[in-house]
Amino acid sequence: MGLFSWFMQWFRGSGDRRDDVSRTPTNSPPQPAETEALRESSTSASPPDAPAKQVNERRPRRLIRIRPRLVSFRNDRRKARLHKPKVVEVKGASPYRFARFGSQTGRYLDLSCDGDDSKLQSRGLPVFHTPERLAEWIGLPLNKLAWLVHRFSSGRPDSVEQAHYHFTWRKKRSGGMRLIESPKQTLKQVQVKILREILDRIPAHPAAHGFVTGRSILTNAVPHVGQAVVVKFDLSNFYTTVGFSRVTAIFRALGYSREAAIWLSLLTTSAIPGNMPIDRKNLYSLTPYLRRHLPQGAPTSPALANLSAYMLDVRLLGMAKSFGANFTRYADDLTISGPEDLSRGLRTLIPLVQQIIRQERFQSNASKRRVLRAHQRQSIAGVVVNTRTNVARTDFDRLKAILTNCVRTGPLQQNRDQVEDFAAHLRGRIAHVLQLNPARGQRLMSIFEKIDWHR
Questions:
Q1: Rounded to 5 degrees, what angle do the CA atoms 401, 407, 410 make?
Q2: 250 CB neighbour count, 10 Å cutoff
Q3: Phi/psi of residue 279, each to 5°?
Q4: What are the pLDDT digits (tens) for 202-237?
Q5: Residues 128/107, Cβ–Cβ less than 8 Å
Q6: Given 27, 155, 312, 447, which is the most exposed site by the fewest CB atoms within 10 A?
Q7: DSSP letter for each residue of 170-208
Q8: Does residue 391 contact residue 413 with C-beta atoms inside 8 Å?
Q9: What percent of the chain has a predicted confidence (pLDDT) above 90?
């Protein structure tokens, strides 16, 4: 008799058997039929004469895994209502040139009244709140400044020729295409002035090591040397994720008025023209660039990207410390490392990191996430950190072979990519090795000094 059939028979006649059990003395030995039933159901069911409470206790409990969830209060609407921007409607003439006109009210809007001069002066930043004062600070006529931000058009260039950027498509190592937007001469001069006199005076978070003066890939790798576990995350479309509104919020937080922040954001962001050429096989690559964004290739983009990720660095550093781990960020590469105890918390750590990234309005590239143990090669931004900062063995051997062949056959045959200044190119690669491993760098330098550059 099968287990299911026996169970149904027992269930239908449970009342009679319970009466029989109640009349049976507690110290009487079990009958042969009862013994056979107990043996048959010992592995998957409780005995028929067991109380209901005892059956429930012997039944295995289901383990429900509850993933941690963070609650962010930064986008609380109630807080947002308390900090509305100060907008003044002006009757009659425009309060300043290129002031915005309220189509619903029929009056000009004065957006230059909500600046904070004391905050700007305490940080050593230039003070201006209107387009006229901004043009005077930059040193350009106001009409030319308006031409740079496409004030006379729809806010974006009508064609590639009218754009203030040079556009170049490049293939990514992981697949797809990346758009390099290099500003033209006039706009580049303006962006360099904004970088030197505004953005460089605002410090980045201590955990940020990319494009920060005094920090490098070496300082980014040092906190993770000799750790048992290294977890790497990657932010996809790091620059294009930072849109126009986020850049405007950065300048507003520095103390600039809403009008000045809008103009500064227009000067440091890019909007591609409608006739942007692209391969039809890679149409999806154009999607991140449709809205106004930080251009990869502008001198101001790295600093603005670091400032936009400030709260991301604050939250991830605090969370890493709660796990007894270290955290650093080099541009779009996030790294968390710690002792062997961190391995037991990875099921909690990784979902929390991904949740924080989403709450800070960035995107995580799950295909590039890595968990590296001590027995593997732990490489962070090209720096090996297993026991000390070092260069990868394959890269060292490749560079050593190039230098050795330059000594034997001459540098012309080794310059296969037709680098303009091949000697400076090799010295730069040797300097990189010297920075990470001085002993290996000296070996390469001794070979470099034997090269005859007249061959």
A1: 105
A2: 21
A3: -70, 135
A4: 999 999 999 999 999 999 999 999 999 999 999 999
A5: no
A6: 27
A7: EE-TTSSEEEEEEE-HHHHHHHHHHHHHTGGGSPPPTTB
A8: no
A9: 66
